Amino acid sequence: MGCRSEPETGRTLHSRSRLFSWLLFDYANTSFSVMIVTFVFPLYFKNIICQGDPSGDALWGAGVSISMLAVAIVSPFLGAAADQSGSRKRFLFIFTLMSVLATALLSFSGPGWVMAALLLFIVANIGFEGGQVFYDAYLPDIASSRSIGRVSGYGYAMGYLGALSILLLLYPLLRGGVVPENIPSLQLSFFGVALFFALFASPIFLVMRDRPARDRSRPDFARAAREVRYTVMHIMQYPDLARFLMAFFFYNDAILTIIAFASIYAQNTLGFTASELMVFFMLVQTTAILGSVVFGIITDRIGPKRTIVLTLLIWFLVIIMAIMTTGKSLFFATGLLAGLSMGSSQAASRSMMARLTPKKHVTEFFGFYDGTFGKASAILGPVLFGFISSQAGDQRIALGSLLVFFLLGLLLILPVRSGSARPETQDM
């Protein structure tokens, strides 16, 4: 017993350090998501860089779509190359460095920097979204089958905690609003995001180790392309995985659209001020933390499929409440419920994917999950929402259309057997 206690303790400490570094990465990169994609930089791009020109909306939408499309196309190929060569951490580092450097350069952007700022944002968002593929693929390696729901939930909770932290940390720079008089403070806030991202992402590159490579060669992208084509052709051999990915495509489409238009809806339809939006997003992050942790535990108790179904029913309620809301107070309550379901549905979905994915192809399959299906849905939803809103002249009608996406996701996931396939036993 005495001889084995020391190495076992060493392995336990190493496992804990790997888990903590993995969680810290989520804490780090969500600061980019809330500040650059969701809240501050979109307003800065439209009001400051484009100086309020109506074309700013179209350019911003194009930038988001281009970056998402790029990740959707390349993620499965890069995932296959990473699995083949055992270089997952190297790819994660490259994409993270892209995002951090491009975000830091955004701190120099100002009025008239339209194309330069748009290009930097596209590079930064490709780095952020592309890195997420390799980050998520570590989940089956650091969590057991019995704890995968909790660990996924803890990851999302840390992410939302990171978002809340960066908002609180940068509040002195943001309280002046997104106005020309506050440009120096806003520019400094973008550099702060880059520094925050780099600092808290660093431990994962020092602690995490890749699984052994299938071969010792350098990444062969031609071979990776052949493997991806093989995966696409034979994905129906995994019917539950295929159904889940289709379900995920539709309900994630609706969730990402809600995230993308939450601030615009609150400001344009309900008349929220910049300060009220700041408080609103902080409250949403708080309940998202709670939802990620609580529903992560629930996922391990009742399974990811039942948890996803439960969260989709909550999303139905969120949409109906938002449509019926006429005052700010009720919309704050709706936002709290949305945060709860947002954290829980994302954590349970990642757990579901990890359960259905063969370990031999884990990064490649997560490339389809995060990249092809996740990012492609981020292209379709906002475009459709914007089209319906412009044609109908009412954002409430556009919001109501998202109920169809949640319904399709619910119907598609009901036949999925979450326990029918385990990564340890399946292989291509």
Automatic annotation (TrEMBL):
GO terms for molecular function: transmembrane transporter activity. It is found in: Endomembrane system. It is a multi-pass membrane protein. The chain crosses the membrane at residues 20-45, 57-79, 91-108, 114-135, 156-174, 186-208, 244-265, 277-298, 307-324, 368-389, 395-414. Keywords: Membrane, Transmembrane, Transmembrane helix, Transport. The keyword Transmembrane helix applies. InterPro entries: Atg22-like, ATG22/LtaA_families, MFS_dom, MFS_trans_sf. Residues 19-418 form the Major facilitator superfamily (MFS) profile domain. GO terms for cellular component: endomembrane system. It comes from the Bacteria. Gene3D superfamilies: MFS general substrate transporter like domains (1.20.1250.20). This is MFS transporter. It comes from Prosthecochloris vibrioformis.
